[in-house]
DNA sequence: ATATAAAGTAAATAACACTTTACTTTTTGT
DNA sequence: ACAAAAAGTAAAGTGTTATTTACTTTATAT
């Protein structure tokens, strides 16, 4: 699943480590999600949505298949 | 995490099995999610949102802690 | 150019989403 | 009351999300 975390981070001038701290996950988790290695859990997606004050759908992009 | 699946199902007069079929998961998975035993994955949440034509936040309710 | 910060990557492990099978309890209809 | 459908529950197993530690590569600043 694609996401706009890198852009949203850039807008706030945050490093991956900054975002990781804000979301209470490891820096590697942020990196893996940004690189599309795996999808965040729903609670983590909610946390990101609250942090950026955006709906989940405006951060994560589920281009649906079948 | 709370959710409104039971109500949304009722509005369409669907059983847990009907919803499970529509979302391509097992009936037990629907039951467990409805009973709050675990949270759906983000892709499954997106699928439910599409099915009910609602934003994720209108189906799942993450009352945030800390 | 070189030091430093940031980002990328990888392996091992832990935690959780989801499945299958199977059984019990509750609800609904006649 | 009774049968049938729906919902609830549980255990064992699989795959994925997320963690930690640690190392390499890329970007930034002086």
From TrEMBL, chains A, B:
Pfam families per record: HTH_3 (PF01381)
Full protein name: XRE family transcriptional regulator
Listed PROSITE patterns: HTH_CROC1
Highest taxon listed in the record's lineage: Bacteria
InterPro entries for the chain: Cro/C1-type_HTH (IPR001387), Lambda_DNA-bd_dom_sf (IPR010982)
GO MF annotation terms: DNA binding
Keyword DNA-binding recorded: yes
Signal peptide start and end residues: none
Keywords: DNA-binding
HTH cro/C1-type domain sequence ranges: 5-59
Keyword DNA-binding assigned: yes
């Amino acid at each position: 699943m694609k996401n706009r975390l890198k852009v949203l981070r850039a807008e706030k001038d945050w490093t991956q480590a900054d975002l990781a701290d804000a979301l209470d996950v490891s820096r590697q988790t942020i990196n893996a999600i940004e690189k599309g290695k795996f999808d965040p859990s729903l609670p983590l997606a909610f946390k990101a949505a609250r942090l950026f004050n955006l709906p989940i759908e405006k951060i994560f992009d589920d281009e649906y298949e079948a």
